[in-house]
Amino acid sequence: MVEVSTSILSMKEGEESKAFLALEAAKTDYFHMDVMDGKFVEKHTYEKMLRNASYIKRISNLPLDVHLMVEDVKSAVDDFLAVDPNIITFHLEACKSKEEVYEIINYIKENNCKVGIAVKPNTKIEEVYEFLPYIHMCLVMTVEPGKGGQTFLTDMLQKIGSLKKYVQQQGLELDIEVDGGINLRTAPEVKKAGANVLVSGTAIVMAHDFKVIIDELKN
After folding, report:
1. Which of the residues 29, 37, 65, 179 is marked catalytic?
2. Residue 179 a catalytic site member
3. Is 155 noted as a catalytic residue in this protein?
4. Of residues 29, 34, 37, 79, which has the active-site annotation?
């Protein structure tokens, strides 16, 4: 079963409350929080996402899918653990060593939270393989992280396929999440390649009816 994680990055200011409730009614599976520090990526959304995450926890029971695009992973993990997320995903590229990757994985899990690792388009998928037995999800970026509304990079389909094949060969239980340019045109290819969690922002929040788009993305 494919799940949808709705990115709230491109949501209009002042309309968040109404949109969050409408997304829950439309049966999105997760709220996707794009947390950016202005260093690891150009855009800065850190405080805004922390505010939104806190607010969502007060009005909704839906799980938070936190995607950290930050240099200081440990500090961000501490900040977002406070809003009781379902999963925190950090970037492989933000870590200086394999030891640091394992430390962060263990730290998140010790705090009763699921953990994911994200990879940018230019990172070889094989670089994440050794960590897969210890995490719950691998996030494949299909655009360069840091901006909403970008065009899907079609050569990432092969990367998703390679990851799916490896996961099956190793008998691992792992979600494969894909983020970037996901809409009704690109979703079928991404699902066929092996993804089972789709992050979509612009395609959903700009739609007249959230439920129609979410249902179509799932099916």
Report:
1. 179
2. yes
3. no
4. 34
Question: Quick one: CA dihedral 216, 27, 49, 95, positive or negative?
Answer: negative
| Alpha carbons 8 and 15: distance in angstroms, whole number | 11
Are 69 and 34 in contact, with CB atoms under 8 Å apart? yes
pTM for this model (two decimals): 0.96
Q: Convert the pLDDT of each residue in 114-148 to its tens digit.
A: 999 999 999 999 999 999 999 999 999 999 997 66
Location of structure tokens 């007060």 = 58
Domains and CATH numbers, the chain: 3-218 (3.20.20.70)
Q: Which tokens belong to 174?
A: 């792992």
d(CA 214, CA 218): 6
